[in-house]
Amino acid sequence: MGTESAFLKNTWYVAAWSHEIAADTMLARTVTRVPLLLWRDHTGRVNALEDRCCHRAAPLSKGRREGDRIRCMYHGLLFDATGRCVEIPSQEFIPPAARVRAFPVVERFKWIWVWMGDPHKADPSLIPDTHYLNDPGWRGLPDYMHYDANYLLITDNLLDFSHLSYVHETTLGGSAKYAGIRPTVSRSARGVHVERWLIDEKPAPFLQKLKTWAGNVDRWNIYEVVLPGVLLMDSGSAPTGTGAPEGRRVDAAQFFSCQAVTPETERSSHYFFQQLHAFALDDPGVTASLAESVRAGFLEDQEIILAQQRVLDLDPDAPMLAMRMDTALASFRALLGKALADERAAGTTGGAGAPGAAGFAER
Amino acid sequence: MGTESAFLKNTWYVAAWSHEIAADTMLARTVTRVPLLLWRDHTGRVNALEDRCCHRAAPLSKGRREGDRIRCMYHGLLFDATGRCVEIPSQEFIPPAARVRAFPVVERFKWIWVWMGDPHKADPSLIPDTHYLNDPGWRGLPDYMHYDANYLLITDNLLDFSHLSYVHETTLGGSAKYAGIRPTVSRSARGVHVERWLIDEKPAPFLQKLKTWAGNVDRWNIYEVVLPGVLLMDSGSAPTGTGAPEGRRVDAAQFFSCQAVTPETERSSHYFFQQLHAFALDDPGVTASLAESVRAGFLEDQEIILAQQRVLDLDPDAPMLAMRMDTALASFRALLGKALADERAAGTTGGAGAPGAAGFAER
Amino acid sequence: MGTESAFLKNTWYVAAWSHEIAADTMLARTVTRVPLLLWRDHTGRVNALEDRCCHRAAPLSKGRREGDRIRCMYHGLLFDATGRCVEIPSQEFIPPAARVRAFPVVERFKWIWVWMGDPHKADPSLIPDTHYLNDPGWRGLPDYMHYDANYLLITDNLLDFSHLSYVHETTLGGSAKYAGIRPTVSRSARGVHVERWLIDEKPAPFLQKLKTWAGNVDRWNIYEVVLPGVLLMDSGSAPTGTGAPEGRRVDAAQFFSCQAVTPETERSSHYFFQQLHAFALDDPGVTASLAESVRAGFLEDQEIILAQQRVLDLDPDAPMLAMRMDTALASFRALLGKALADERAAGTTGGAGAPGAAGFAER
């Protein structure tokens, strides 16, 4: 229940922030238990190769950039950006099997997306819209956390915001009233949509540092979590009445949040996130305070999730009892379960990347 | 041989010292691989709940006391002292299955005893008599060690005092003469009784710091180790002749030791102990010296037991060769093996605690 | 592919350097997952006993030397140098099974060799010739590294020197030209023979610190790796022409290297090595510089091998693609595979050592 041993492969995962891959660096990052080498060629395009030489499994990330090629610095095999071996010391013949997998990559709005499955199915139009991440109408700071926990424990957390009242009582959340509200949950094509309104209440603790109103506010969290674990959220607060679902959001503090949970292994995860604000754009203090509040809140999440993981480790088969608040969570896990079953049934979750598999020009 | 993978459930385990559970604290402690939350209600009674919320397995020990109730601070479920869920945010209906196990608890003579199996079988009269722990006629200091080893390696140690001559040569033991003595071993209802006399010998090293005699002494160790791993020992030394089995123990240094070994997991254990003295009651220096000697000695035990565990880890199935000195140890392991087999055969080793399962008023 | 779960038993393993076993010490060292106690008796002979008491598996290395006997300091059993138990506290009768395995040991040229299999097959003539280690015509310093990696990843490394151009580009290796040369590989009785010549090239970086020549040199590496993992290598450089295969090695820098890889467990290894030089014998600076260069180079090996092990841990069954440069490596692995299969078929890989099994007088 708490963990899954297989990973969805035919899907886009966020593997890195754009700024993590400088022109001359090589980033090693494991995604779905596959070691990846992420690097930027001379055109600036990011490539993802399996970070395991086809010869003796040495990681290419310990190797050397030679222009747009990567040399394994164990025995000297040289690979081009498509993963094809182009040079083998002491032999002329290069067998066709001498290649490492190349994974389709799309760099879009500061995130590096990789496709871990069948490259022919890698359709960039499936990438969720995160344009907020570099929209001039929004401000925010990028952040990252590494988790020693299964990634589904993190998506569980994102799918049930009733935890705001308890885990984040003095930070992102507020009173128990928030947990008492039933969100509207619906299923989308590849995700779950959640909408939650808190009407006529004091602004949340973190918000009180950002903006002052004379009276109470209406607060909304409207978001989708799409497979494999990407949260896109419109949230905010506005004076009571103007904020309400049918309101015009006058004098609002409006936010957008992009978050991505990526499995590293069965027992560890990457967590990329950025909370953006659409008000006080000229006040870097607001941007900094928001980022600080979000990080503080996400450390609260991490503490309870790691504790949960340790409890599950004692008895991985311990039953969990579904509550009404789990509607979104259960819906997402069911969606994922079906996607995994479909993928297993189709039996086409990978294989050696075809030449040029990495070829999405977009950035 | 060296370890057992199943734990006896229908038995009382020592889970904590009374002083570890203050009025306003929550103690997390794992017993037989089950995470427990130990806490004291407003009447002072200690309760033990499974430290895993029935909802998403978050530990309740990360939660909040609300009077005599515990709120899970992940999603806000509230539990009463019997483990029954009494509040679920955003829903009125509380399903009967919404509960965490409550374990029978008895607080007696400074030890917190928990019953990990069928609560209906939890008979407090089965708890060994450790009244010495707070008898005004005795003095001693409570102590605890955590072990990264299977608990049976510790009970093995307690059941064969021939190790005193080697592990504790300069502390609790003394010459090899001690190891040369054959103890009298007999089986009791739920344990093994051991009696050992060393006649006309110099006082043990630790004892020389506590009391002076003109000549040699007779030394006795008379103890029982009862399931699952509780040692109760009458020991001491008195001038030769007065100490001997039939002696009157005149001018004796008399001790009583209460020790409890509790499995945390297959590979880790809790060890609670207190050595008490019945002489020099008004001399806190004697109490301190005794506690210090015992701890120093038990660290010697720990060093050899951890080394033994590491050797066993290399080959868990390595044979062990029984010696005559293993009579008590073998008897105890046989007793435990039979109790485990009986429990497996009966198939009634737990299940959700019935309401009020924790209800032993005694303290 | 990357690791093997069984170890060759009927073979000599290097377990220690002679200087690690002082007259009054006991060295604990695990070889092929068997804990060993190595110690030197009053005649100076080294003995190897299983470092696990036959009674309760306590390590004898935590015990006490009593002349040429070892007392287990858990419960006092006393063992002679053949592993026979000669004293059991509190009992007269010593059962024949009361013994720990003794392993054949040969101390030769500063290395302690142990035979982990059937003692009757332990033929000292099978020990490779490492007389260079204390030949007055050679100078070098002994060294050791512990590896958290399977031992075959280290022997792989030794069997393919094409890595010199990449792993050791600025230390032991040099230009990519070295990797481009095809070595001559042939199989010997219990090993693989490799010969490699680099003609008319600048001296290797480490060599430039040791000796100066007016022009280029010819460089040779002629070595054998014998089961289970012992490298014996004639290497060196001499002015171009005089160095070449048919040359007379005039004004040469000539080296001999003895290296032994010994499995500790499936996932950890011992690595013993000494590089010796036959020129500048009176210059301790050359000896020190050589030892320093070798250690620096071997740390480069360790870095890539540990990285390789971590990649393999993510997917132990990941395929490896054999290259021409793997001829020696593949040959060695095939030889080992056959030896392991033979051993399994014969089913005679150990058992309790016969009395006197340790009896090789040679030192």
Based on the model shown, name its key terms:
homotrimer; about 375 residues; alpha+beta; Rieske Iron-sulfur Protein; Naphthalene 1,2-dioxygenase Alpha Subunit, Chain A, domain 1; 8-stranded antiparallel β-sheet; 4-stranded antiparallel β-sheet; globular
In short:
By secondary structure, the first copy, chain A, is of the alpha+beta class.
Structure, explained:
3 copies of one chain form a homotrimer. Chain A contains 5 helices and 19 strands. Chain A has 2 domains: 19-118, Rieske [2Fe-2S] iron-sulphur domain (Rieske Iron-sulfur Protein); 131-343, Naphthalene 1,2-dioxygenase Alpha Subunit, Chain A, domain 1. With 363 residues, chain A is of the alpha+beta class. In chain A, helix 1 crosses helix 5. In chain A, the strands form 4 sheets. In chain A, strands 12, 13, 14, 15, 16, 17, 18 and 19 form an 8-stranded antiparallel β-sheet that branches. A 4-stranded antiparallel β-sheet of chain A has the order 2-3-4-9, with no helix packed on it. The model of chain A is unreliable at 349-363 (pLDDT under 50). Chains in contact: A-B, A-C, B-C. Chains A and B meet through helix 4 of A and loops of B.
Please give the structural blueprint.
The structure is a homotrimer of 363-residue chains.
Chain A: E1 12-17, E2 26-31, E3 34-40, E4 46-50, E5 64-66, E6 69-71, E7 78-79, E8 85-87, E9 102-103, E10 105-108, E11 111-115, E12 139-140, E13 143-147, H1 151-159, H2 177-180, E14 184-188, E15 191-201, H3 205-208, E16 217-226, E17 230-239, E18 253-265, E19 268-277, H4 284-314, H5 327-346
Antiparallel strand pairs in A: 1-11, 2-3, 3-4, 4-9, 5-6, 6-7, 7-8, 10-11, 12-19, 13-19, 14-15, 15-16, 16-17, 17-18, 18-19
Helix pairs in contact in A: 1-5
